[in-house]
């Protein structure tokens, strides 16, 4: 990610100090990370933070199917009991979350319920600022993991984003994490272009079957090139139709599929790089209309990426020290809107899986009838989750990072 792009993202989000811009403005590649192989304590854990941009509907992710208020509030969006992947007699997972359901059955998935903060804000930008800074009263100019990075020595490679731009949560006062574009990845054992061209070329005297195979391969290469051109032309810095520069948006997320981002994380973990924190993302969760099918598609992508990554991590000692945390900037309203969707809400769930995570329920579920102007009342402060991750995964005192916050999620590890 070039310096200008990263600086624009940070400034439009309003979260970063000048020192962090100077310290973290350089571009990094996968090779820069791999150069640190062997530099870390093999006993230390790794945090992988997955952001679901747009505000994922928590009530149709972890579904309170046993509560009559769920179906009454959203009759068209509610899942029938028979479609829910049951966790117990009251709650179940979205039908698209087959892999996570299996992990729950094996004790490998933790669900922290009702996570939010006081005086919630339904703006994407403001809510992400709050989640990134861990300062709900008045978001400051540093991210919570950026402040951790300042205390951990400031090497940008300790905290890495595989998103299109450096997220503000990795910006500290004196340092900032590294943004490593996924598109910089090169195939380790790819075939030369000349060989691929030869595969697609017709040859005199070849059989009809071989001729068809070559033609199909040539078509495949043409489609791949077209997709590459479209992807490369989709520059996040292009101007909007009104001629103004389009700002970074909290409803975005990486253009690269989540499984590709997590594949890079896995390569780094298996190589033993020094990175302690990875930030990845999936966007598209702002489901104001026709929510059910769209969310199911996105949750299916999330499920395949997470379960594939978790299975891969379970095969190595370094991988078994990885903790994954999944969150979104807010949940959705309890009641559906008139467009078969849901509008911006408040509290939702945080999902965790991986090393030492104690599977099962954590925290109390919010009531679907005792609401705050139609929204769920949070039951777990998000700083409790952050403090627990700092303490148990990153081996640091949460106090200086979270302004002496004392809350924790009990028995999460």
Structural commentary:
With 413 residues, this protein is an alpha/beta fold. The protein has a single domain, classed as Alkaline Phosphatase, subunit A (3-Layer(aba) Sandwich), CATH 3.40.720. It has 13 helices and twelve strands. Helix 10 runs parallel beside helix 11. The longest helix is centred in the middle third of the chain and has 26 residues.
Percent helix: 25-40%
Could you tell me the CATH topology label.
Alkaline Phosphatase, subunit A
Q: What about the largest sheet?
A: 9 strands, mixed
Query: Would you tell me the overall average pLDDT?
Result: 85
Distance from first to last alpha carbon? 35 Å
Q: What structural category arises from helix and sheet content? A: alpha/beta
- Whole-number count of domains: 1
Number of strands: 12
Poorly predicted runs: 1-14, 21-25, 184-189, 226-250
How many DSSP helices? 13
Q: Into which percentage range does the β-strand content fall?
A: 5-15%
What is the annotated CATH architecture?
3-Layer(aba) Sandwich
Rg of Cα set: 22 Å
H/E element sequence: HHHEEHEEHEHHEEHHHEHEEEEHH
């Amino acid at each position: 990610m070039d310096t200008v792009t990263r600086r624009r993202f940070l400034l439009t989000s309003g979260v970063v100090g000048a020192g962090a811009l100077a310290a973290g403005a350089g571009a990094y590649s996968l090779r820069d990370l791999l150069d640190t192989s062997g530099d870390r304590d093999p006993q230390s854990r790794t945090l992988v933070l997955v952001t679901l941009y747009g505000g994922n509907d928590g009530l149709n992710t972890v579904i309170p199917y046993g509560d009559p208020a769920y179906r009454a509030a959203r009759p068209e969006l509610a899942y029938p009991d028979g479609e829910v992947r049951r966790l117990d007699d009251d709650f179940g997972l979205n039908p698209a979350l087959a892999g996570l359901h299996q992990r729950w059955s094996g004790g490998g998935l933790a669900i922290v319920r009702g996570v939010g903060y006081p005086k919630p804000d339904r703006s994407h930008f403001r809510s992400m600022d709050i989640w990134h800074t861990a300062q709900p009263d008045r978001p400051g100019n540093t991210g919570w993991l950026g402040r951790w990075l300042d205390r951990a020595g400031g090497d940008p490679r300790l905290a890495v984003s595989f998103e299109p731009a450096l997220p503000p949560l990795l910006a500290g006062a004196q340092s900032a994490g590294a943004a490593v574009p996924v598109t910089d990845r090169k195939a380790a054992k790819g075939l030369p272009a000349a060989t691929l061209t030869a595969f697609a070329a017709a040859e005199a005297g070849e059989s009809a079957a071989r001729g068809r195979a070559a033609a199909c391969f040539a078509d495949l290469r043409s489609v791949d090139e077209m997709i590459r051109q479209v992807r490369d032309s989709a520059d996040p810095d292009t101007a909007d139709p009104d001629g103004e520069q389009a700002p970074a948006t909290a409803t975005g997320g990486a253009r690269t599929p989540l499984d590709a981002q997590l594949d890079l994380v896995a390569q780094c973990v298996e190589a033993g790089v020094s990175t302690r924190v990875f930030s990845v993302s999936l966007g598209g969760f702002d489901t104001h209309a026709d929510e059910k099918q769209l969310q199911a598609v996105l949750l299916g992508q999330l499920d395949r990426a997470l379960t594939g990554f978790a299975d891969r991590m379970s095969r190595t000692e370094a991988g078994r020290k990885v903790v994954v945390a999944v969150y979104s900037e807010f949940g959705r309203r309890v009641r559906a809107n008139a467009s078969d969707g849901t509008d911006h809400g408040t509290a939702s769930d945080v999902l965790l899986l991986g090393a030492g995570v104690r599977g099962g329920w954590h925290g109390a579920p919010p009531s679907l009838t005792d609401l705050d102007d139609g929204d769920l009342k949070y039951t777990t402060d998000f700083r409790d989750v952050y403090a627990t991750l700092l303490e148990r995964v990153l081996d640091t005192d949460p106090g200086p990072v979270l302004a002496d916050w004392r809350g924790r999620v009990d028995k999460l590890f």
